[in-house]
Amino acid sequence: MKVIVGLSGGVDSSVAALRLIEQGFEVEALFMKNWEEDDSGEHCTAKQDLSDAQKVADKLNIKLHTVNFSADYWEDVFEHFLKEHKKGRTPNPDVLCNKSIKFKAFLDYALNLGADKIAMGHYARIKEINGAFQLKTGLDNDKDQSYFLHLLNQHQLSKSLFPLGEINKKEVRKIATDNGFVTANKKDSTGICFIGERNFSEFLATYLPKQQGNIVDENGQFIKHHQGLAFYTIGQRKGLEIGGGFGDSGAAWFVADKHIENNELLVVQGDHPLLYHASLNASNPHWIDNEPNFPLKCTAKIRYRQASQDCTIHLENGEIKVNFDQLQRAITPGQSIVFYSEDVCLGGAIIEDRQ
C-alpha cells in the first residue's frame, strides 16, 4: 500500500514517516506551503521547514514532493478567519485548515500521485468497525489533537493514517534522536495554522481596520479605549493594559463579553461570575458518523486541551443546545465545541452564544 505522509519539517511528521516505513508501507512524502510571504521574514519558516523536511526524506530514502496550497488556504481558511474576526468572534483556523487543506486539498493531491492513503503526524487514532470509521483520541492526553480533527468525514478518515496515535511526545522525541533526525529537538510550531508565531494584534491590524470603542466594567463605568473588538477574545487577560486605580482589588482583569451593537468591551476582575455560563447554543453541527439520537448525554470540550466536561445535548430547530453539568469558564462564540463518548470523537459545532 502506498502512503504519502505530510512531511512538515517538524519532529512529529518525521517520526510518522519512519513508523510507516517500519510497518512495511511504500512511503513517499509531500511538503505543502500554505502561506505566501517573504521567506526571509522572521515569522515565515517555510524555507527552513522545507530544508529540514528534505533532510529527513533523504535520511529515510523516500521521495519528497512539494506543493503550494496558498491560494486554497487564503480562500478556504483565511478569508473565513477574517470575516469572523470582523464580527467580533474568535474562529479556530486550525479546525478549518484540517478540513479544507490537510484532509481535502492535500488528500486529493496525494491520491492523484497514486497514494492509497495519506498520513499525518497528528496525535489521534482511527478505528474501523463494520465499515464505519471512528476518530479516537490520541493516547497521549497532553498532545491529543482530536479536537482539531472533528470536522473530518468518513471518506477522509478512510483514507488517513495517524502513526503517532498510540505513542506519546516523549517517545517521539527519543525515536527522532535515536535516528539522528535534524528535527529531533526542533521546537513545536504554535500560533495560527501555517502563519506561525507573531504579535497577533499587529498581524490582524494589517488586514482589519481598528475601530476604537470603550472598555467598561460590569457597572458600565468607562475604563479606557480599545482598538477594536476583533483584537480581543473572551477570557483574555494579557494585553488589556489596565493599570492600577481601577476596581477595588489588585486582581487581574479579564474580558467577559463583547457588546457588538455598541462596540463595547466588558471586563471584570478576578474569577468573576460573569466569566461563567451553564449552557450554550451552537450551529453547523457535524457528526463523524451517523447523527446521534437526542437528547444525548456525553462530554464536550469548548477549547483545545480542556478536560472533557459532562453535558447533555439537545437538538432544537436544527441548532444544538448544550447544557453543562458544571459552569464553564470563558465560553467563546466562534470557537468549536467538540463532543465525545469516552475516547471516541463524535463531532462538533460552532459556538454561537452562551447563557
UniProtKB/TrEMBL annotation:
EC number: 2.8.1.13
Active site per the UniProt annotation: C97 (nucleophile), C193 (cysteine persulfide intermediate)
Interaction with tRNA (site feature) positions: H122, Q335
GO biological process, one term: tRNA wobble position uridine thiolation
Superkingdom per UniProt: Bacteria
Pfam entry (one): tRNA_Me_trans
Positions annotated to bind ATP: G6, L7, S8, G9, G10, V11, D12, S13, M32, G121
Region described as Interaction with target base in tRNA: 92-94
Localization in the cell: Cytoplasm
Enzyme superclass (EC): transferase
GO CC aspect terms: cytoplasm
Positions of the tRNA-specific 2-thiouridylase MnmA-like central domain: 202-269
UniProt-listed InterPro entries: MnmA-like (IPR004506), MnmA-like_C (IPR046885), MnmA-like_central (IPR046884), MnmA-like_central_sf (IPR023382), Rossmann-like_a/b/a_fold (IPR014729)
GO MF annotation list: ATP binding; tRNA binding; tRNA-uridine 2-sulfurtransferase activity
Coiled coil regions, renumbered to chain: none
Family note: Belongs to the MnmA/TRMU family.
Entry-linked HAMAP family: tRNA_thiouridyl_MnmA (MF_00144)
Its job: Catalyzes the 2-thiolation of uridine at the wobble position (U34) of tRNA, leading to the formation of s(2)U34.
Protein name: tRNA-specific 2-thiouridylase MnmA
Organism, scientific name: endosymbiont of Bathymodiolus septemdierum str. Myojin knoll
